Amino acid sequence: MDRMEELPEYAERVLEVAELIPPGRVMTYGDVAEWLGEGGPRQVGRVMALYGGSVPWWRVVRADGMLLPGHELRALAQYRTEGTPLREAPRSAEGHVPRLDMRRARWDGGDDDGAHI
């Protein structure tokens, strides 16, 4: 049985949006909900937590640009591979984990080849 037959309809739609996000770009949980015209950031986050492992989960992020707790290193490796814009962490930050540069990395769902400034 294929993945889509096993998922609730809303989860299927969230995962389809996640797959549309170009490499090197991100959408927030709220952006995905707004794109769908349904649900909210918490609902999208729940779908990603339960079912997101089969899609580029690292491209659906928190609005503040903080990397997903517990998955920072895996996500960071993906961001660096894809050239996703990052803001280096200040020396005072715990673990010195960078944040996403949301101004440059955020994708609005329009035509985009994944290039950024």
Describe this structure in words.
The protein has helices at residues 3-6, 9-20, 29-36, 41-51, 72-82, 102-105; strands spanning 27-28, 60-61, 86-87, 99-100. With 117 residues, it is mainly alpha-helical. α2 packs across α4 and α3 crosses α4 (41-51). The longest helix has 12 residues, at 9-20. The protein is globular, with a radius of gyration of 14 Å. The mean pLDDT is 88.
Quick summary of this structure?
The chain is mainly alpha-helical and 117 residues long. It has six helices and four strands; from the N terminus they run H-H-E-H-H-E-H-E-E-H. The strands form two sheets. The protein has a two-stranded parallel sheet with strand order 1-2. Strands 3-4 form a two-stranded antiparallel ribbon.
